[in-house]
Amino acid sequence: MTRGYARLKALVVDWVLVSLFLLMVEFLVISFSGRRGPTGLLVSPEETLDLLHYAWIGIAALVLTLGWQLARGERGMSPGWSAVFGEEGDEAIPWTHTLRGWFTALLIELTFLTGWLITEVQLVTFLTQFNKATDIVRGLVNPSGEVLHQGLVLLVQTIFLAFMATAFAIPVAFALSFFAARNLTRGSGLARLMYTVVRALMNITRSVEPLVWALIFISWVGIGPFAGVLALWVHSVAALVKLYSEQIESIDHGPVEAITATGASTLQVLRYGVVPQVIPPFLSFTIYRWDINVRMSTIIGFVGGGGIGYILKPRVDLGQWGEVGTLVILIAITVWAMDIISAKIRERIV
Amino acid sequence: MSTEAVRIEGVSKTFDPDVRALVDIDLTVEDGEFLVIIGLSGSGKSTLLRCINRLIDPTAGRIWLFGEEMTGAQGARLRRLRTQIGMIFQQFNLVKRHTVLTNVLSGSLGRSSLLGTLLLRYSEEEVRQARAALERVDLGGRGRSRADRLSGGQQQRVAVARALMQRPRLILADEPVASLDPALRHSVMRHIESLNRDEGMTVLCTLHDVDLVRRYATRLVALRDGRLVYEGSPDDFDNDTFRDIYGTDAEPATGQLLGAAGAAGEETA
Ligand SMILES: Nc1ncnc2c1ncn2[C@@H]1O[C@H](COP(=O)(O)OP(=O)(O)O)[C@@H](O)[C@H]1O
Ligand SMILES: [Mg+2]
Question: How far apart are CA B182 and CA B66, in angstroms?
């Protein structure tokens, strides 16, 4: 990294921080002057999208940032500068003696205040209105027997939904994980390309929540447990590829060398040098994934993906707390049992 | 072709960023030799052995194996050439979770059917050969054990059996007894010697122990800082030549050459 590039990086960090500082100050001024709009942010959509306004703030921040750099002698280092170049000198100066200390402290305060307003924190309501929630608690401790049968049936569906999603994920994740392991993809240009493509695809897939995948698959295969299976399947593949490939990257290379040296082909090297080393941890990860999938499949029904969540959502909406209580207890027992079972099995494997 | 097993011409290897592990090595190994390579750790012995079977690609130079060029070989041709070279490692490098027998059978991967080997299926003839190889290293009864249940010395004998199963013409042994209890070193070296004497395999072996060098080597070369600095007969290998090779500070104490990796594996079984 050249010195010029490092300086630019430090400047950008400072500029972003100072801009945020100014934006939050402005927001607080608007809020306390009583002109807060319905979005909780700025007054009107037009003002929110007023780019010129942001340009002014950006320019002001830039001027302040540059000014700080010019006055670095007297005022001390800026946050970006010290992040990129490290501390100068070895004297420990208390934060109250530096501009950077005050700036950072104020920035944290501002962020907290802004967050308080944006998330509409209402401490008083929280502390005084507990009685409104007692209905739910009463329902939880007085579960109604009415949904017990339907709940149990759907619970079985939930567990199998999670199981099928995991089962379908195993072969796909297994095959892909070899391409996502750095140590196996150094050879040719094609291998390196595969690595990059698989990694990128899996990262994107994993960053989309299963509930969103459920919505996509519901419009694809219709409402029901199969959509839930597909949603959890996609997410599980991405998650397992990450775990599997990291495991492959940490294998002992000795057996790989030994098998390669016998004149074995690539597939044989994988089968003898890699696979035996990764099978036990793969099993462990897979069972853990099934455990997670059971948890997720209890709520995938909220959007129509099958499982017990499918009958839970309308009862919450209608305020039938006794029935909600039954279902929540069923879910809790299942999740708890899966947790213990999966932990026990994994203990045995490794 | 002649009686040359390996010919190495001008081989250099530079690792990133600037580690000169091998510098312009010229070396010829005659067919049937038991050639021992010595040198401090870091002198390039492992790198040299790995360049020969191309686990490492040399940066410069050429290598021939029984008259066929190793350097530049790719794909099926490289694999075919590798079947001619067995390798024995300091850390044994068995497939720990496989049985001893499967480990021995993996020596024949280069010539067995792909599908069969992927399913761990071998012909009766191959299994018979593997059992015979195990008998040869005195592990006849242990075929069904998991490889990591065996002691270090036994595991290294399984590695010798794997090399026997491979039926190569050349053996590369990289500090084959450095991880073993000194009392057990001969039990492994004897079998490597048998590969050389009884099976006619050429052996290239790195060692650290003066006694072992004198006992097993038919010829001796030494590396220092990636250069070949000595070549001679093991009979001429005395304390003076030892200091020539290792430097005046070195002391051949208790038969152990300087730089030997400590005996890490214990023999328990
Ligand atoms: N994969 C590698 N990457 C970088 N440097 C290496 C690598 N392998 C070996 N070296 C370096 O090359 C030199 C020779 O190593 P090596 O052949 O293992 O020596 P020896 O087997 O004689 O102990 C050492 O300096 C070592 O650090
Ligand atoms: Mg070495």
Answer: 34
Contacts of B84 in chain A (CB under 8 A): 263
Q: Residue A319, exposed/middle/buried by CB under 10 A (0-12, 13-18, 19+)? A: exposed
Closest CA to ligand 1's atom 11: B21
How far apart are the CA of A278 and the nearest CA of chain B, in angstroms? Answer: 10
Beta carbons of A342 and A265 less than 8 angstroms apart: no
Residue A43 contacts by C-beta under 8 Å, 6 or more apart in sequence? A30, A35, A36, A37
- Whether residue A320 is found in the same domain as residue A214: yes
* Shortest CA gap B250–chain A (Å): 31
* Residue A90 shares a structural domain with residue A189: no
Task: Return all residues near A323 (Cβ < 8 A) that are at least 6 apart.
Answer: A139, A143, A144, A146, A147, A315
Identify the residue among B93, B96, B97, B102 best suited for mutation to test binding to A, counting A beta carbons within 10 A and taking the highest: B93
3-class secondary-structure state, position A77: coil
> Distance between CA atoms of B240 and B232, rounded to whole angstroms?
13
pLDDT of residue A41: 54
How many A×B Cβ pairs under 8 Å?
A: 83
Range of the domain at A308: 142-349
- Minimal C-alpha gap between B103 and chain A (Å): 9
| Direct distance between the N- and C-terminal alpha carbons of chain B, in angstroms, rounded to an integer | 46
Number of domains in chain A: 2
- Which residues does B167 contact at the CB level (< 8 Å), separation at least 6? B107, B199
Q: Which option is the CATH number for B1-84+168-263: 3.40.50.2020, 1.10.10.60, 3.40.50.300, 3.30.1780.10?
A: 3.40.50.300
CATH number, domain with residue A315: 1.10.3720.10
The terminus-to-terminus CA distance of chain A in angstroms comes to 43
pLDDT one-digit tens code per residue, B88-117: 999 999 999 999 999 999 999 999 889 999
**CA–centroid distance, residue B69 to ligand 2 (Å):** 25
By the 8 A CB rule, do A228 and A157 touch? Answer: no
Residue type, A250: S
Q: Do B97 and A257 touch (CB under 8 A)?
A: no
Residue A247 is predicted with a pLDDT of: 95
Residue ranges of domains in chain B: 1-84+168-263, 97-167
In this structure, the answer to whether residues A99 and A172 fall within a common structural domain is no
Q: What is the pLDDT of residues B56-66, one digit of tens each?
A: 999 999 999 99
CA dihedral sign, ordered B260, B261, B264, B265: negative
Are the CB atoms for A58 and A14 separated by under 8 Å?
Answer: no
Task: Give me the mean pLDDT over the A62-87 stretch.
Answer: 85
Residue nearest to atom 12 of ligand 1 (CA): B21
Atom number, ligand 1, closest to the C-alpha of residue B223: 22
pLDDT of B256 above 70: no
Task: Calculate ∠ Cα A124-A125-A126, nearest 5°.
Answer: 90
Instruction: Tell me which amino acid residue B91 is.
Output: Q
Residue A85 is predicted with a pLDDT of 82
- Reply yes or no on whether the pLDDT at A283 is more than 50: yes
ipTM: 0.90
For residues A114 and A168, state if they share a domain: no
Closest to B207 (Cα-Cα) out of B173, B164, B160, B158: B173
Pick the residue of B49, B101, B106 with the most A CBs within 10 A to test the interface with A by mutation: B106
pLDDT of res. A43: 59
